[in-house]
Structure formats: C-alpha cells, structure tokens
C-alpha cells in the first residue's frame, strides 16, 4: 500500500530547495553521538548517510579511541573526541552544550556501546537536547538506555525511536506493553506508553506510529509552544512497504538513523523559517521524517542489492542514496526544478 498522498506531500514540504536561496547550514546540521572503543563503523554510517542524504554538515561526537578511525573514513565528517572516560561530567556537559547550539538534530546510539561512561554521556546529551528543543533519533544502544530508564525520553514528542525486531521486543517488554497485545497494535501502544514518542518499528515492512492519546502524554514536555492540546491528541500509523534489498546487512539501520535525522534537521530549518510556509505542524515532523527516511533507505538497499547481490555491504548503499531519493521524491526536489 503506498504512503497516503497527504503524508507524502507534507514530507516533500520539508525538503530544502536547491535553488541558491539557502546558505550553508540551512539544509541541516546533524550530530551523531556514538563511537566507543569497539564501534566506529556505526557512527560513521549514520553521519555520512546524513551528508549523502543532503544535510549540509555532519558531526560525530565520540570517544577519543574511536575518533582516529572515524576521521580516516571520511574528511567530510567533523569529529569531536570529547567523550573521555576520565573527564568530569560537568566538563563534557559544557562541551556538549556549546556544540549543540550549532546543531538541528541529535542522533544517539550508533556505536554507543553499553559502558557506564558512554551511557551516562548519552543521558546527559539527550537531556541537553530536550532542553534546547532539538529533534532526537534514538537507535541501537540508546534503546537499551531507554529500556533501563524511560524518563530519559518520556513524553518528548520531538523524538523518534528506531528499534529492529529484537530491540522492539525487548523495549516493548521493558516499557510494559502487554505481550498479548495483537502484533499490529504493539508499536502504537509503545508510542502511547512513551508519551507520544514516534516509533519506527523496522521489519519486512516498516511501521511508523505516533500515539499521543494516552495519559502518559505531556504536551509541555515537548516544547510545542502555542499548540492546541485537543488538536495534539492523535494516533496515526503508516506502513512503509517500499521494496528493499533481499539482504539485510549490518549497518543498514545506521543509514536509516542518519536519513531520519536529516529529515528532522530539515524539519527544524523549516520550523525556524529558513524555507517553506510553516503549514506543516511541528508535532507531525517525527512521523514524516521516519516515513521519508524509511522509503529512501529501503530503496537504496534495493539499488545496492541489484548491483551486488549476496555480497552487499552497507558501504554499497551510500552511493545509492541520492538516486534513491530522486526515485522517491523526484528530481525537481533534488535539483530545485532545474532538470
């Protein structure tokens, strides 16, 4: 089933024009927080995918042990090796606050790991991002963090969580979704119990849902100024069945988190008036970003698989993102109507 037309058109409205009217940074500044001793590929894939998707600038916030490898992967990434195990938390907090003043969105989790110090820095980063009203994407070990303490993200409607099958099962159980809930309703219930956080349940078909009708929802927690409380109570589910590749390579989820993060960065630029007419409600942007990111990532996976088959690796997807974007949203949106 295709994505409903009204949703597709709202997604298109968040795409920055490529017509020379915007300056550097107005097409999105993305931050990826992750990258510990054993994990350098995941934050790289998330951050470089944001650039390939169309963000202007992409930052990686990581531990010093991960910084060297990530820098060597691409000179296009801005790498900040500030998550030092021995550093006082207040020092790192100050550095994060300074850096976040330059970002539109924070992607947390790719290559984060479960070491206590990295998890602590992730919680601090999410708290800072929430206070600044930033959009947030949480994946991988950031989901482990939420499962242990849901208050980190509870009620924050500017956030998207992106669990795979295993992560979704674990997170649902930790948050309190009844295991007897029909499978097609579990994502909706998870979103409701998290207070309206958008859930992108990855699978054969991606399920994206935002449910703000539960008693756990708190409009004040989401910094949605001047929002009508009654209009902000909604439950919406979209299933993305865009064909993907037949091989699910490790790292594809990191590409997706970078893609969703870029759409959210564009949403923040749209919200701030860099382009567009502000008719798309801010509270809908997480769902729209998740749908748009899912469609393009799945298409890029199919393109890569068509060329490389069983040998497909995540690296093969990166060069396909631009073509996948053009297939979904058209050349006019990619090149400002000049083709």
UniProtKB/TrEMBL annotation:
<dbReference type="GO" id="GO:0110051">
    <property type="term" value="P:metabolite repair"/>
</dbReference>
<feature type="binding site">
    <location>
        <begin position="202"/>
        <end position="206"/>
    </location>
    <ligand>
        <name>ATP</name>
    </ligand>
</feature>
<dbReference type="InterPro" id="IPR017953">
    <property type="entry name" value="Carbohydrate_kinase_pred_CS"/>
</dbReference>
<dbReference type="GO" id="GO:0005737">
    <property type="term" value="C:cytoplasm"/>
</dbReference>
<keyword id="KW-0521">NADP</keyword>
<comment type="function">
    <text>Catalyzes the dehydration of the S-form of NAD(P)HX at the expense of ATP, which is converted to ADP. Together with NAD(P)HX epimerase, which catalyzes the epimerization of the S- and R-forms, the enzyme allows the repair of both epimers of NAD(P)HX, a damaged form of NAD(P)H that is a result of enzymatic or heat-dependent hydration.</text>
</comment>
<comment type="similarity">
    <text>Belongs to the NnrD/CARKD family.</text>
</comment>
<keyword id="KW-0520">NAD</keyword>
<keyword id="KW-0456">Lyase</keyword>
<dbReference type="GO" id="GO:0047453">
    <property type="term" value="F:ATP-dependent NAD(P)H-hydrate dehydratase activity"/>
</dbReference>
<dbReference type="GO" id="GO:0005524">
    <property type="term" value="F:ATP binding"/>
</dbReference>
<dbReference type="InterPro" id="IPR000631">
    <property type="entry name" value="CARKD"/>
</dbReference>
<keyword id="KW-0547">Nucleotide-binding</keyword>
<feature type="binding site">
    <location>
        <position position="111"/>
    </location>
    <ligand>
        <name>(6S)-NADPHX</name>
    </ligand>
</feature>
<dbReference type="InterPro" id="IPR029056">
    <property type="entry name" value="Ribokinase-like"/>
</dbReference>
<dbReference type="Pfam" id="PF01256">
    <property type="entry name" value="Carb_kinase"/>
</dbReference>
<dbReference type="GO" id="GO:0046496">
    <property type="term" value="P:nicotinamide nucleotide metabolic process"/>
</dbReference>
<feature type="binding site">
    <location>
        <position position="254"/>
    </location>
    <ligand>
        <name>(6S)-NADPHX</name>
    </ligand>
</feature>
<feature type="domain" description="YjeF C-terminal">
    <location>
        <begin position="7"/>
        <end position="328"/>
    </location>
</feature>
<keyword id="KW-0597">Phosphoprotein</keyword>
<feature type="binding site">
    <location>
        <begin position="244"/>
        <end position="253"/>
    </location>
    <ligand>
        <name>ATP</name>
    </ligand>
</feature>
<keyword id="KW-0963">Cytoplasm</keyword>
<feature type="binding site">
    <location>
        <begin position="164"/>
        <end position="170"/>
    </location>
    <ligand>
        <name>(6S)-NADPHX</name>
    </ligand>
</feature>
<protein>
    <recommendedName>
        <fullName>ATP-dependent (S)-NAD(P)H-hydrate dehydratase</fullName>
        <ecNumber>4.2.1.93</ecNumber>
    </recommendedName>
</protein>
<keyword id="KW-0067">ATP-binding</keyword>
């Amino acid at each position: 089933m295709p994505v409903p037309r009204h949703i597709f058109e709202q997604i298109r409205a968040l795409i920055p024009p490529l017509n020379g009217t915007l300056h550097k940074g107005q097409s999105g500044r993305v931050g990826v927080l992750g990258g510990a001793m054993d994990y350098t590929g995941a934050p790289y894939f998330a951050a470089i995918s944001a650039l390939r998707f169309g963000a202007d600038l992409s930052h990686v916030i990581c531990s010093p042990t991960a910084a060297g490898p990530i820098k060597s992967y691409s000179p296009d990434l801005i790498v900040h090796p500030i998550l030092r195990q021995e550093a006082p938390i207040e020092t790192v907090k100050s550095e994060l606050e300074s850096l976040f003043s330059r970002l539109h969105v924070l992607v947390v989790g790719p290559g984060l790991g479960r070491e206590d110090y990295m998890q602590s820095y992730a919680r601090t980063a999410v708290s800072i991002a929430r206070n600044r009203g930033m959009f947030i994407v949480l994946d991988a070990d950031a989901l482990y963090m939420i499962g242990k303490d849901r208050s980190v993200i509870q009620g924050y409607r500017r956030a998207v969580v992106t669990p795979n099958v295993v992560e979704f099962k674990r997170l649902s159980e930790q948050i309190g979704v009844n295991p007897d809930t029909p499978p097609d309703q579990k994502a909706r219930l998870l979103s409701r119990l998290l207070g309206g956080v958008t859930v992108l349940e990855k699978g054969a078909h991606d399920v994206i849902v935002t449910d703000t009708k539960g008693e756990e929802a708190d409009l004040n927690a989401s910094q949605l100024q001047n929002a009508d409380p009654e209009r902000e109570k909604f439950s919406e589910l979209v299933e993305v069945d865009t064909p993907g590749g037949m091989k699910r390579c490790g790292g594809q989820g990191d590409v997706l988190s970078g893609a969703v993060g870029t759409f959210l960065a564009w949403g923040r630029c749209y919200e701030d008036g860099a382009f567009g007419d502000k008719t798309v409600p801010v509270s809908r942007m997480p769902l729209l970003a998740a749908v748009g990111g899912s469609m393009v990532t799945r298409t890029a996976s199919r393109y890569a698989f068509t060329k490389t088959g069983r040998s497909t690796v995540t690296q093969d997807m990166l060069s396909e993102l631009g073509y996948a974007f053009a297939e979904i949203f058209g050349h006019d949106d990619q090149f400002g109507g000049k083709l």
